[in-house]
Amino acid sequence: MGYVSESFWHDAVNKATTDLFTFGYKHVVKPDLVFSRPPDQAHDDMLAFCRMAGQLPPLLWLERAMLDYTDPVLETTVMGVDFANPFGLSAGLDKNCEMAAVLDHAGFGFETVGSTTSRPCAGNAKPWFHRLPEYDSMMVHVGLANIGSDQVIDRAEQAWTHADGMQVSVSIARTNDDQVGDLDEGIEDYCVSMRRAAGRTAMVEVNVSCPNTTAGEPFTASPENLDRLFDALDRIDRPQPTLVKMPLNKPWEEFRDLVAVLAEHNVQGLTIANLNKDRTGLQIPDGWEGGLSGGPCTAASTALVARTRREFGDRFAIAGVGGVFTPRQAYERIRAGADLVMFISALMYRGPQQITVLKRGLARLLKRDGFAHVADAVGVDL
Ligand SMILES: Cc1cc2nc3c(=O)[nH]c(=O)nc-3n(C[C@H](O)[C@H](O)[C@H](O)COP(=O)(O)O)c2cc1C
Question: Which EC number(s) does the record attach to this protein (predicted)?
């Protein structure tokens, strides 16, 4: 099938339905069906909807016909993986790999399932979420709840092999339960999931920066600890590229030292960055625990992408994540050095059609500035 951008009628329908979805989400779905419920319940309902929709081929067909936007300017190859577009779902929304069919038909370039852990994990006590609409943000305190990497990676492999165009990555993390032991136990925990993932997904993301666990973040606490983890992971034979999910709030020198360690290992990409722990200047109730997504991440994440790209050149591919809501913000992130762009909060605050809004808008901005391919714009602002 040809590109949507090159078919007058398909393009017109895609634009009209995207505008309609944007209006419907803002004025009906968000106020009456999503934000009218507690965020934990809205999250469960969203997953139940995706499970149901994923079983209905006619609905999936309609979804693709209305929402998927394809354009050669968006195609890109990063770390040897081909992407129909640079946009992906960031880790954490689809922990147990239940949304893949819906995301594939909506036209995501990729999704990251997980984070998943070697043992099934119940996560922290609820509530897991608080909304902060004044900041386009969610406060997240899930604590890595998931059904275990054994099952999640089985599902991810199925999703990847059945997807029409979407790549599937799996985020692996350390189990957050009462069996957590010393550093070596933590390393083995990652290794179990890495062995399970080897060769079964397009990419693996190693999450060393979850802010919500009882064990804390020992692998970003010192370069030595990170080195030990990746010494062990290097010994696991795997064909797919590995990204590392980095923390947002380290002082630059500490962050740079961690990246310098990763540069010596079998790591091809950095995902910059995880949730924001810095509440400075924000009005947030005292009892709320967790890290911040969305708006509070935008500026800090773009700056960290740019600084990392400047310092480490082409050593790593960079997936930029945090507070990307608009095509202009995505374009800015790419011009700052990101090869790929991920998001979650934009879906909650703007709606599921935001993937199409981002793709259409980015394609327009790239063409306006004379870029033939998205890869040509990576890092041009540096
Ligand atoms: C509901 C939710 C759950 C998340 N869970 C994870 C997770 O399991 N692993 C992870 O690496 N990041 C997790 N994150 C962080 C996101 O992947 C992302 O880094 C962060 O939300 C910033 O992107 P955004 O502003 O587009 O939401 C989670 C975020 C949200 C909103």
Answer: 1.3.5.2
For ligand 1, atom 21, name the residue with the nearest CA.
293
Residue 382 lies in a domain: no
**Position 70 in a domain:** yes
Atom of ligand 1 nearest to the CA of 274: 19
Number of domains making up the chain: 1
Residue 215 has a pLDDT of 84
Probe residue for ligand 1, chosen from 170, 274, 354 as the CB with the greatest number of ligand atoms within 8 Å: 274
First to last CA, the chain: 37
Strand-pair category, 203-207 with 242-246: parallel
Going by alpha carbons, the residue nearest to atom 30 of ligand 1 is 92
The pocket around ligand 1, CB under 6 angstroms, is made up of 90-93, 115, 138, 140, 142, 144, 171, 207, 210, 245, 274-275, 293-294, 297, 321-324, 343-346
Rounded CA Rg of the chain: 19
* Active-site residue, 210 included: yes
Please say whether the beta carbons of 336 and 320 come within 8 A. yes
CATH number of the structural domain spanning residue 173: 3.20.20.70
Ligand 1 closest atom vs CA 298: 25
**112 lies in some domain:** yes
Q: Is residue 296 part of a domain?
A: yes
CB 262 within 8 A of CB 317: no
Which token pair is 302? 């773009």
Atom of ligand 1 nearest to the CA of 324: 26
pLDDT digit string (tens) for 308-325? 999 999 999 999 999 999
Ligand 1: residue of 140, 147, 270 to mutate (most ligand atoms within 8 A of CB) is: 140
pLDDT attached to residue 287:
87
| pLDDT digits 0-9 by tens, 148-190 | 999 999 999 999 999 999 999 999 999 998 888 899 999 999 9
Query: For 25-60, what is each residue's pLDDT tens digit?
Result: 999 999 999 999 999 999 999 999 999 999 999 999
Domain span including residue 63: 4-377
pLDDT of residue 147: 97
Give the residue among 144, 147, 205, 141 at the shortest CA–CA distance from 171.
205
